[in-house]
Amino acid sequence: MYYDFTVPVPEVKGKIIRKPKGDAVYVLFQFGQKYNKEKKYSVPQRTIIGKLHDSDNSIMYPNEKFEAYFPNNAMPEELPEAYRSCALRIGSYAVIGKVISEYKLKEMLFKRFGDDTGLLLDLVAYMLVNEENAGQYYPDFAFCHPLFSEGMRIYSDSKVSRFLNSVTKDQTIGFLDDWNKNRDHSQRIYISYDSSNKNCQAGDIDLIEYGKAKDDKGLPIFNLAIAFDKTNRVPLFYEDYPGSVTDVSQFVHTIDKVTEYGYKNAGFILDRGYFSKDNIRYMESEGYAFIIMVKGCKELVSSLVLEHRNSFETNREYSIRSYRVYGKTVKSKLYEDDSEERFFHIYFNPSKQAAEREQLEVKLDKFKLYMDKHLGEEITLGKTYHHYFQLTYDKKGHLLSYKERDDVIHRELQLCGYFCIITSEDMAASQALIHYKGRDISEKLFSADKSFIGSKSMRICTSEAMAAKLFIEFIALIIRNRIYNLLKETIISLEQRPNYMTVPAAIRELEKIELVRRNGGSYRLDHAVSKRQKVILSSFGMNADDISTISIEIDKLLKDNQALMDSDEETDEEGI
């Protein structure tokens, strides 16, 4: 990313290269050379450190690499007061501050981050409000929002970059230790564990590798997992690990981490991706229960589904009306040499049956259409085609004909609409389903992380910055999850389901609460709090009077710290 201020182009003889590309001229720094054995000569090693100013070729807009290779060059850390808007949006600031206070996040973070705590919380608020994780846009956010930093300082994007690269493992791990230490370890909880992966541009990052991506864009990835307390609806911790490491192999280390955090009376809610004989045995050896969901067509449970098919689907005794399914519990071993029988909860969903059958029919139609186009041609078809069809080739590999495998398709049609939940503890089918459905919240967390916080990709080039951004995202998810839960509780109490009570919609509505700077320099509320905004604020135990109080505090804080900001600006260059 390129910063929004200029610096002189460094004067290093023979090392600075100006390279035009498109409408811009980029400044490259030659930091070394590497001998090429094949070509038998040295190849210069260069990197972009900035982009020339449009009208003055003696100055440039620097980037992160400039800071790395020219650390002694002066760069501004704070932006002047002129960069603060005359209209400040305070609604989201008030709500986010309320959650921070409720969880005592500022105190826990200050223990690890000291004076940088305010900037960290500002970056958290920026991610939540702007649904964005690109650091270069933070100054634009700070321009028109109250801030949690001391004196509501507006830091430059270069300061943000330095902060991200300064965060250490000790700080993030220390916070996670404190966060989990404050939980009630005697309470019976179910931990929902889920993982995803993120794309990342190739840079000086240890974790990124080419692996099996869920959204494959041909880019290197890393994996991210979140453990979530389903019982209390709170994220517990997160893990990042290399892109080539599978979820199954990583899960053993997750169990160890749960044990280290002191969660003894707990169970895990997982999907099929974490199932392995070793993981099951390890969980039980550590005293943890488990709940695992498996699709009805999977080999693990398909024979069991077929065995009990037509024994409960129309019997009202097995109806679970809240989820519009029928469920039956049977006992069986999970694998041949299993030490004991498990509880298999078999479910049938009539509407899901119709949808899955239609999906299968559509898939078969597409296969047939494709094969019809290539009859008589030399073509190699994948395993899926061989699974559903008997294919006939001539000696030269030309596709001559195909025929449906009636037994295979008949079996899959029978299994449509069925799924299974396996538990280590004895419980009713309805109870197992309720536990597993609670896992939807952890899946919403990943939706929040990738969609609402703009983090499908990590826009950084160093391991330190990536670790810092992941940590900031986790803090943002803690706060966003609390906002989501409180809004949801309010919706339940309302007669209608207003469309402004989702997290992004509520934040957009709160952003309309503004302070405006009058001629005397004081910030005052521009208008009264609306009816919608009052409903949203009530979810957090707040009202219009609280907004008035906060607006007065913001105005006083900005007045008291005006001189402080100006004097800091004069000494910035000496302190860098």
Automatic annotation (TrEMBL):
InterPro entries: Transposase_11
Annotated ranges, domain Transposase IS4-like: 212-478
Pfam families xrefs: DDE_Tnp_1 (PF01609)
GO MF term set: DNA binding; transposase activity
TM stretches of this protein: none
One BP annotation, GO: DNA transposition
PANTHER family to which the protein is assigned, alphabetical: PTHR34614, TRANSPOSASE IS4-LIKE DOMAIN-CONTAINING PROTEIN
Name listed for the protein in its UniProt record: Transposase
Organism in which the protein naturally occurs: Butyrivibrio fibrisolvens
